[in-house]
Amino acid sequence: MTILAAQFTPRIRFHHSFSPAISVPTSVAVPRCDSSKLHDRHTPASVAVDDIGIPIEHVKTLAKFKSRHNYIRVLQVSRAADHPLAGSRLLLLDAPGNIHSISYLFKSLTDSYYDVFATLPPILPPGPIGLLGFGAGTAARIILERYPDTVIHGWELDPSVIAVAREYFWLDKVEKKYKGRLHIHTGNALNAGLRDGFAGILVDLFSKGRVIPELQDAATWEKLRKNLRSGGRMMVNVGGSCVEPEDIRTDGGAIMEETLKSMNEVFPGEISVLSITNRKDDSSVALTGTPPKIQEWKTALKGPLKFYADLWEPYPTRTMDRRLR
Predict the structure, then answer these.
(1) What is the pLDDT of residue 24?
(2) Across 32-36, 70-74, 290-294, least confident range
(3) What letter would DSSP give residue 264?
């Protein structure tokens, strides 16, 4: 599939934690919600990017078109840009321009929630991982690179997204490199399943700029739970107030809380939450199951991924508990 490029000036928001926006013809402005905030409270080497702009000459549109399911755009950020996203390739979906994948040619880590997803394998029983909401394969690439025995089955609703991933995000090379360990399916991810179940499930399901409504229904989580092997877990991008839905009347923070409540109905007392920021423009990832033994988890993780094991709190977190009252 060949996708024609077109020049345009979109607004960009991550559907998770790192939300740059192109809002003027001279620069790319960065709103407050960003993944570098993962490090603000814990490492002295944090980078404040809230007020940094990327000059528009450092951003190139590689593709822009509408598919049956999405408004798809691909952007390339120049390596010369003075910005944490320098050298990245970005997949934008939905009218608000939420970013659904980040890829770099020479590295796989992204300093965003995709890296958090890559901490899941060491706390799982043996078996394949389901990735619901494959996008351009950012999380899959990180996991396959770091865990040589892991097999991933990814589901993506839109075949055009997979075509874009192969043409612009090196997915074709990833498939060849990890042949037999990466299996991509197109269709409704909520119907995903394997005969013997999954050791773990990563859930990253957004549509129209928000966590899909089905994830605010406990019945969906019960259905997904039945696809887990004994001892299996799910890790879920539950979004937050930094996510920009197409419907401006919709509040991303409220959707996050509804999603967590529904999860807690099916996994009572077994939900942990990692908050990307501690501010009102939050974004969070949730984990099911009894809390892992942190030191053992950190020992099994390599390099900068160790950092994330210490950030989990039981649900509701202190911040959420105050908000709910």
Answers:
(1) 29
(2) 32-36
(3) H
